Predict the structure of Polyketide cyclase / dehydrase and lipid transport.
Amino acid sequence: MKYLKYILGIIAILAIGFFLLGVIKSEVSYDCQVIVDKPLAESWAVSQDESKMADWLEGFQKIEHISGTPDSVGAVSDVHFITEGQEMVIRETITEIVPNESVAMTFTSDFMDMDYKLSMNAVDGKTKISSSTNAKGNGMFSKSLMALMSSSIKEQEETNLANLKKVIEENESTTPTLISETLELTHCESAVYDAQNNRIYASLIGNREDGDGSVATIGLDGKILNKTFVAGLNDPKGIAITKDKLYVSDVTELVEADLKTGKILNKYTSESIAFLNDVAIDNSGNVYVSDTRTSEIYQLGTNGNFSLWLADAALDNPNGLLVQGNTMYVASWGSAPEGGRVSKIDMNTKSVDSISTIIGNLDGIRPYDANRMIISDWRSGNIHLIDAEGNTENILTVGQSVGDIAYVKEKQLLLLPMNKQSRLLFYKLK
């Protein structure tokens, strides 16, 4: 009996000590850092690329978007992990994001709450990656465990950063490099390259006064050739060209202009049109234009007939259009701020199928290589590569309002029209 009292006393002391651990040290805070032998822009792009996260975050499975605009402040997602054979789901909320600089978020689970910030700085052509973590247990038991687990939690973060360093340094770079920019392009929205005349066409919305919009011509050196090549437009957006004609959407009209002179030849419209956006042309010469507000696509046939081609809620406020053979790819704006996805249309049956989950408020979509396309997210400023199965890779983040992009494969040139900044960015992209 005497020994039993001693044993019970020891157990009581241990229990009190365990309890006090949770009272005295219920939070764990630590900082970690690594130096990566890659430029800042590439390091940032790799760290934000969901397709690479399983390579450096132990147990990572997927991110399930819940609400808000992806990759923006306020976005909420469930992050799925597998730990010791068991699935664990952590709720993530982005609280701060500055492209190429830092991202901060809160993580919430049954066991603990965590404030986390990942920062990057350029240092002599390399990148210093720093992380700051503050974790707090939920409930007295988990708070007490936090005190005992503090060193192992920090070790896991150090391992994650070491893995991230390896993934970045072994990454085969597709990160674009800024080479020049053209300024004073008032609310530049769309860009198209004309190989025949070796020049770029850019739609300029202007100051939203009737008639002050235009299509400008720009040299490959970034110099403005003619700011009003096609003049007298209202709010021009998407552009597409044929051998001798230029087509540009202008609010409720599809405008046809002479490719050599810029003279307006025809205007096409319909009573039901609300907000025309991107323009695409198929191999037969039929012209298509999206109506973002009505989830419709119109067609200008080679016979000159302009009519509704497809109306389908599955288009989800279509923006960017890309025709490849008998398939049309659609980059949807979706709803704000949640965003849209990429879909494909069988142009024979007109059936619409999604190929991705929600990505963002999408704008431009252009071919990149035999298997992938480039898409732009207007709201977040992200530029992604996406394949036909919907797998995405973030290759660049620029400012909000990146519009209808262009990619000139033979010149390794990516053109990014920046609406709010009134400029056109020239990037080298292999």
Q: What stands out?
A: The helical segments are 2-24, 40-47, 140-169. Residues 90 and 109 are 5 Å apart (CA to CA). DSSP finds three helices and 31 strands in the chain.
